[in-house]
Amino acid sequence: MPAGVSAWTPLANITLAGAQATVTFSSISNAYADLFFVIGNVKSSTNTAGINVKFNGDSAANYYYVYAIGNGGSATTSNQTGQTSMVLASNVVPDTTNPGQILFHLMNYSNTSNVKGVLVRTDFPSTTFSGTQMIAGHWSNNSAVTTVQFALQSAATFAAGTTFALYGVS
User: Fold this and answer.
1) Which tens digit of pLDDT belongs to each residue from 91-108?
2) Where do the structural domains in the chain lie, given as residue ranges?
3) Please, are residues 53 and 148 in contact by the beta-carbon 8 Å criterion?
């Protein structure tokens, strides 16, 4: 591979067989520069829940991010500081008939000298919101990330068929 070109290594794939409130990737190897998650066929038990992520079980106010949501006709932006989790999708998780997709890039996850940067793109063709959400943020902690947990808000559950793929990026 030419210098400067990164390689993606598949690390884990999960397809939900039934409804599930959380999905956790644990014991993540520190052998890569970045992690990349592809969450596909995203469906939930309600159309108003958002998706949160936490690293290493941290529920302290260590998550900072900005997001923009747009659908070509309107846009919304927000800045969140000192949160107890990071939102990957804000109240736009589709119902079971309109699946969406999330692309989630976690940078420098194993480096213990810096905070962890995050870039997210979420696409939802749902009945209540059809558009894209973009998020940039960081986890204000120098610990290497070894566990990543995805959870829905509002006591919702991920529906059967939702897929989670994890890649290590060198």
Assistant:
1) 555 555 667 789 999 999
2) 13-117+126-169
3) yes
